[in-house]
Amino acid sequence: MHYIRFLKPPRLLSGRRGNAPSVLKAKVTITTDLGESFLWANVDLVVELTDGTGNDVLERGKGYTWKGSEGMRSLEVELLIPASRGKESGEALRLLVRPKEEFQAVETFESFLGDSNEHEDTGEMGGVMAVRSMAIDMPSNQSLPVSTSPSMAERTFKFGTSEIHIWEETGESIARHIWDAGLLISAYLASASVPSSRKAIPPLPYLHKTLSQKDLAVIELGAGCGIVGITLCTLFKQQISQILLTDLPEASEILTQNLSSNLSSKNISHQVLDWSSPLPQNVRETQWDMAVVADCTYNPDVVPDLVQTLRRLGEARARASASRQMLVLLAMKVRHDSEMVFFELMAEAGFVVREKCTLPLPVLGGEDEEIEIFVFAMG
Ligand SMILES: C[S@@+](CC[C@H](N)C(=O)[O-])C[C@H]1O[C@@H](n2cnc3c(N)ncnc32)[C@H](O)[C@@H]1O
């Protein structure tokens, strides 16, 4: 998967004279989730201006080409905005940068779950994810160039009639943007939420059975922006009575933002939970039916603490009820062999893999990748 990102957030330069149009400028790049490699293929992009609610402001967007084959690493984009727009009404404007071709746009959760047999590994398939800026307020004094520095950007995912809006930070933080494994497991769970869509995804019967029960208490560890927990809470409303998204303190602000952008439900909340600290009392005292972990196993130094946290949660559940076990749902993109220590430690902690599956992840201009999903229970 490739992600369009704002390197420099959009800033508005006012026209010098009365009715001269203003210019909205931004610098974008296109990278993988880790940001470690740029998109090597060429992609036609469209830059559009929308109002705060997503409606187009200009008649048509402006086209650009990302020339990855020539080693492009960043692209300056700009739009002319009529002086009449925004400034008088105080209208908030937003910049949307998206791939022009529909087959590259990944707007719906269904579009992430391609069939690995449908294409050969030619590097010609693979999604490029659109990004939308924060609202850029028009200046009240047109003679001054106005430079806004929003630190967040939004990505939208559709599934049926539901839309999930996930804000992420535009900077370098790895805690606070969307990751491939979180994205793919969210798409998987979305399909699992509708019986008729389940045939399009690899079967995980034990997971599906758990997710069909009522009054489920779910905890997510290392939730980041919260995409997985928010997807679960949105699409399994009938089944989940409580869902807690946890991470380090630095993720709290983005989690607050994303919870309020998506859900008004009392069933979902977030709180700090550091794997290297003892479980907070409320977490210790809740009988969790499922713990969700997406893209958290890449750093072998913190994996022992992560497994220890899962063990404490699983043992507390087992002590409370012999009949209902806590299931651990894990999604990972294996990046290096050292990540396998997670499985050794999980086995030592008494967890067994009940089922697993692999989701293909085509990568434009590169070798295809895979996201692996594991369902563990205490043996
Ligand atoms: C790669 S991100 C994945 C985020 C999210 N699960 C997703 O898939 O989008 C890894 C997450 O683990 C969290 N994390 C790392 N060490 C942690 C610790 N000791 N305690 C709690 N969370 C931790 C990070 O803050 C980060 O949000």
TrEMBL record:
Single GO cellular component term: cytosol
Entry-linked Pfam families: Methyltransf_16
Transmembrane segments annotated in the record for this chain: none
InterPro entries the UniProt entry points to: Methyltransf_16 (IPR019410), SAM-dependent_MTases_sf (IPR029063)
GO molecular-function terms, A-Z: S-adenosylmethionine-dependent methyltransferase activity
PANTHER family: HEPATOCELLULAR CARCINOMA-ASSOCIATED ANTIGEN (PTHR14614), PROTEIN-LYSINE METHYLTRANSFERASE C42C1.13 (PTHR14614:SF132)
Protein name: UPF0665 family protein
Organism in which the protein naturally occurs: Lachnellula occidentalis
